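Protocol step 4 of 5: obtain the predicted structure for the target chain.
Materials: sequence only (see below). No template structures provided, no constraints applied. The aim of this step is simply to have a reference model before the mutagenesis design in step 5. Sequence pasted as it appears in the construct record:
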Amino acid sequence: MASSLTVNNIDGGYGSVRVLHDLSITVDFGETVVLLGSNGNGKSTLLKCITGLIKPDRGEIILNVDGEKTDLVGKTPEEVVTAGISMVPEGRRLFPALTVEENLYLGAYRKFARKKISENLDFVYEIFPRLKERRNQLAGSMSGGEQQMVAVARGIMSDPTILLVDEPSVGLAPNLVSHMIGKIRELKEKKNLTVLMAEQNFNQAIKIADRGYIIVHGEIEFTAASADELANNEMIKQYYLGV
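Step 4 output (structure tokens):
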């Protein structure tokens, strides 16, 4: 299925604290779009609005699946997952007292995905062979890098068409970050996914980005039509590259 997202003029936040201000982005079918910004600028808040964890105060979030459009504002997280959107949350958020494989099975909650549990389990074990080796190990006893693998694999178990990834580099050593970014690209290509990734590690994000946005204080400050435009932007050079 061909899926895309359009966020139009979103205002949102937490109670009386408004984090997002008239924010608009698009993620077209088959793209990897990166949302760049330092901590506290609204990246995670936007992803929570998309997934139904936060209801925006204003605006619309349009999911387009094969030409059929649905406004996700007001939808529950369960309804958003059922529609084909999966999120890999910041901080991994695993069930530490369950095994790797039990965590992965929980990712297949979506009704459509239950029919493909065996197929998707074989697929994520192919991408992350370490997880197959340790499928009976408690998730909470694994290293940070291994836990991130579980979190990404769990997102794939719902058999999504759109994958949201929130700060996959947090808490990982540089070599593990590079490995994880490469795996996200591999998953995207092999599963024909549409990806929106929130990240503050510019050097890693740019490796898989088709294009992207820079978010500052809940507003889109720069829209790049390509990875090259991101790399050559003065704001990027100042804040991320130290130029």
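Step 4 remarks: The radius of gyration is 17 Å. The longest helix spans residues 174-191.
Proceed to step 5.
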